[in-house]
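Case study 2.
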Amino acid sequence: MATNTNAFAFETALVQFKSGLKKRDRDKFKDVTLEGLLKEIENIQNTQHSQRRGKNIARLQPFIEAMNEFGKVIEVFCNTTEMVAFVWVESPQTNNPSLQSTKFSTGTDEVAGSFAEAFHELLDVYAKLGESLPLLHQYQQLFQTDPNMLKVLTTMYKDILEFHRQALKYFQLPTWKQIFGSIWKTYKSRFGPLIDNIRGHGDLVQKQATLTQIEVYRKDTETHTRQLQSIKEVQEMQMLREVISWLGAPNAENDQYQYSKIREECPGTGRWLLDIQAFKEWIDPKFPTIPPLLWITGMPGAGKTILASLVVEEIRKILPPPITLFFYCKNGDDEKNSFTSIGRNFLAQLLNTNKEILLPYYWDKFSNSSEPVLNTYPLIESILEVALQTCASVYIVLDGIDECEREQRKRITGWFRGLVENLQPPHQDRIRCLFVSQDDGVARKDFRALTSFKIESKHNRADIEIYSKSAADKIQSSFQLSDDMSHQIAIKTQVAADGMFLLAKLISINLSQQTSVADLENELEDDRVPRELNEAYSRILERLLGQASSAERVSSETLLRWLVCAKRALKWHEIQAAKSIHVESQSVDLERRRFRVDSKDLCGSLVEIRDDGTVEFVHTTAKHFLISSSYVDVCRGNISLATLAIDYLNMAGFRRNAEDVTALILKGYYGFMEYAVAHWVRHLEEVADETTDNELFRDISESLETFLELHYTSPTKRLPISQENAKRLRLFQDRSFHDDLQQAVASIRKELTHFGEMQQNEIAFDLTNITNSIRHILEKTYIDEGQRAGAERMKEMYGQNIFKCPRLSCRYFCDGFPMADQRDRHVNKHTRPFHCTVVGCPTNILGLTSAKELERHMKEIHGLIKDIDLDFPEDEEIARSKRDGHDTGTSKGGLTGPRKRPRITEFLCPHCQRIFKKKYNLDSHLKTHSDSRPFSCHECGAPFARHHDLNRHEKTHKEKEFICGGELENGQRWGCQKKFARADTLQSHYKTESGQSCIPPWRNAQAHGVGT
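Prediction:
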């Protein structure tokens, strides 16, 4: 009879184990007997043998025998089968204990029915566990007489339960089939220490260790566990840094924080939305509309983005908390206006919610990707689909869809609508999506048939009234106004805004910035209070430029022109460097020429400054106003920026072997370098396409001629000139440098878009090499200055991220990294993009240059061979096998019995469901679904998965031999004269509408007996 103390330790471990199980699993497991388990093993084995897919289930025999004896020993001490119910349970037919944890607590039949490799790996783990477990029945008396040995037995019991808990947790994931190949190696490593502990405790029992020996082992185990945990944490941190860099996601939390701060200025703003029926139904965690999709729309300035930030906060209050994903799109920002940006950002947000599972999964995808930054649509979509399937409930908020280009809008709305609309019962509400945008023709098409809600003036009226009163109170205090005057300001602001929160804000700011009471009264005249956004913007400019000195006016106009025409958002340190360029003296003088006031002083409430130093317009409508009202001439703006960038790069600091580079760095000379190098060509293309100003044309032509003389390298390989670029550069066709300019633009365009390694004979400029040389000195100077407390000054001149990628096509060419090792690991992804997936292997960090090298490495070093032919019968196949009455011929226990299977004549692609008759053809086809593109075109660098795809593509670069047309005997020409690389392409041309119009003259000639 066991004492309560003996039973308590086992009971505590069991209760803890059961607490992690769902009721469904507890009920399922308790009904399984050893006899039922062996029968199920037999059925699985029979089906395996009939399909020639046997996995040597006999490996389980040591585990079953060891657990059988383990269960008998525990029952003696617990005096009840409940204490061991999830390892053993009493069979109603016999007195023999039976393995309770059917399918080994993981649903082995389900594993086997879905993925043969998983089944093989699971059997292997259980075989190792069985080898570690001693046969304990012979030590029954020892456990009863030695309390120390009983403690060892209890610890073994806990480890066995923890082993089963880990396995169960993994194979209960809804996405385990998709992520098995990616994370099993990582997850499997967690079983190793448990098995080692079980083996170690078993050794203690077998040698009947003393208390001292047990204590020494315990301390050694704790030390070893801490060391393993430390190593694991370091590896995970390394993986996390690499993956985050690969995702390259903008931080949506910064946007959320900014918009939340705006709402704090007027507490309670937007809470009326929570009472709108359509919204209540969408957000209701129990009874949502199906499909749970909602479109909120409204006019510009109605506060849609601020409402979206409120929705995010409300979702985060739901219990139990769902996963909240959100994104704020922004026009003109390449990192915030595309599907790839949203996808990468959502992947980063999901990673923060489930690092345990998603980090190894992302890491595997990163290691097998040749992209330094995730940018491939299919890969983003597939990873995102899997990551979302790990979530029980997801709320998605997408704001500003109308800020994206048409093709991106279509892709974003189509993909996320499909994601939600394709959910199947009973989980149709598992993912919900809220779209927020303006109501234009495109949006109505994209969101047709969706539940929608339009923000009207009446909805914002109460909020604007509160805001206007608060703003009027501040103005009253500043100007010492009467209560009546303050009330008048509040009423006029509220009436003029008419539901547009942005307009109310602009009116209030404009009034607060007046310099006298008289000016304030003048602004409050009925004909002066703006009634729409453009009027408000006009009033702000009128005050800014009208009250400014001539120098201030020039500075304001210059900055506004740069912000409108810039090809990406400018940082304040870049603006200051650009302002400090003095072409005549060939210098960059920050101390004397930089702005002594900030952007808010120069541009007023038209702009905002982000935490990272980015200067951007308060709203997209502000930029549109400046263009449409001709405050900014876009053509002249592009000319000025193109000329400035080119003149800047013509300066002595960018010459080969430039002198005193370190001294120039410390003066902020290179603060505008990244923007100038990356974007001069984009400004030039728009200049060439639009300018009609002869004087400006002469200026840019003169600068270009010097630019080419200094930096053009005369590449030996000539690149093809697109029709579009030829047309754009036609303006310079009479200039002696026209041909060189065409080649230069083609080369720099390829550098900007090509992620692979460009051939040296294609590179037309030395600027990338010069830039990287300067950066090398700049980084060294920054490190040296850090030792002399001068690093902060350098950050003011060059931004927070000093260490940058050398690839012009990479976003990190401008964005950079705060640490050199982060940049180095990123660059390694460019040059050696194929990484071993085994954490701890040096090649995991260093990478390899080709997929073939990686395959050889995995085989020779790690013994891992990818077997795409692994397949295991589904549950339906098992059931069909039983119904068809296969003669199993197995012995009792279900651990033997090979059988012949029929020949497989169809091979199904798991990605697109295409069926092949030959496995070789399937193998070749599967390469088209792979992320690996090892075959690159020597002409244009386009990557391909298969060699024959490359061969077909390269024919398009050869001289086109097939021509639409010819000459009739009467001398008349027919056809459009277009040339084609292949005959089948010409045939396809003839089937088109334009091609059909080419053929009639030839047919008429044939009909009348006239040849060609």
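Residues 87-114, 865-903 have pLDDT under 50 and may be disordered.
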